[in-house]
Amino acid sequence: MDFASAINCMDGRTQEPVINWIKTNYKVKYVDMITEAGPIKIISENSDSCLINSIKERLNISINIHGSKLIAIVGHYDCARNPENMNTQVIQIKECIKIVKNWYDVEIIGLWVNENWQVEKIKL
């Protein structure tokens, strides 16, 4: 597998840790970053169909053209658009996983980026 995808916050503090974690743990060369401010809030609450469609369009390219076989859905500490605590964000991530599984038949995982900018895999 050359590509994986990540639905991640636009927050620059999360980008490198997530990319590095996915590359190391899934042995991929590239990670397509689909970023929005607080995407797990947007998807889990179905609060903005325009943004959700934009996320789906970009995932379509990653899955259908780049051949990505993995989608990571990411929440993080100190999110400006989604200032919820870890427990609430983990619930949102799990809801996002259910929703995105209806869009694509690929492996989907949840990740949390903690206050030390370290990536933790969410247990489902």
Quick rundown:
The protein is α/β, with parallel strands linked by helices and 124 residues long. Helices cover 44% and strands 25% of the residues. It has a five-stranded mixed sheet with strand order 2-1-3-4-5.
- Strand order across the biggest sheet? 2-1-3-4-5
Please describe the biggest sheet, giving its number of strands, its sense, and whether it closes into a barrel: 5 strands, mixed
Number of domains: 1
Q: Can you count the helices?
A: 4
Number of strands: 5
Q: Mean of the pLDDT scores?
A: 97
Share of helical residues: 40-55%
N→C terminal distance: 23 Å
Unreliable runs, pLDDT <50, ≥5 residues? none
Kindly provide the name of the CATH class. Answer: Alpha Beta
Task: Give the helix/strand class.
Answer: alpha/beta
In what range is the share of β-strand residues? 25-35%
The CATH superfamily is known as Carbonic anhydrase
Shape annotation: globular
**CATH architecture name:** 3-Layer(aba) Sandwich
What Rg do the Cα atoms give? 13 Å
Element order: H for helix, E for strand: EHEHHEHEE
In CATH, the topology is named Beta-carbonic Anhydrase, Chain A
Secondary structure layout plus pairing:
Layout: E1 3-9, H1 12-26, E2 30-36, H2 39-45, H3 49-65, E3 70-76, H4 86-101, E4 107-113, E5 119-121
Parallel strand pairs: 1-2, 1-3, 3-4
Antiparallel strand pairs: 4-5
Q: How would you describe this structure to a colleague?
A:
- This protein is an alpha/beta fold and 124 residues long.
- The protein has helices at residues 12-26, 39-45, 49-65, 86-101; strands at residues 3-9, 30-36, 70-76, 107-113, 119-121.
- Strands 2-1-3-4-5 form a five-stranded mixed β-sheet.
- Helix 1 links the parallel strand 1 (3-9) and strand 2 (30-36).
- The two termini are 23 Å apart.
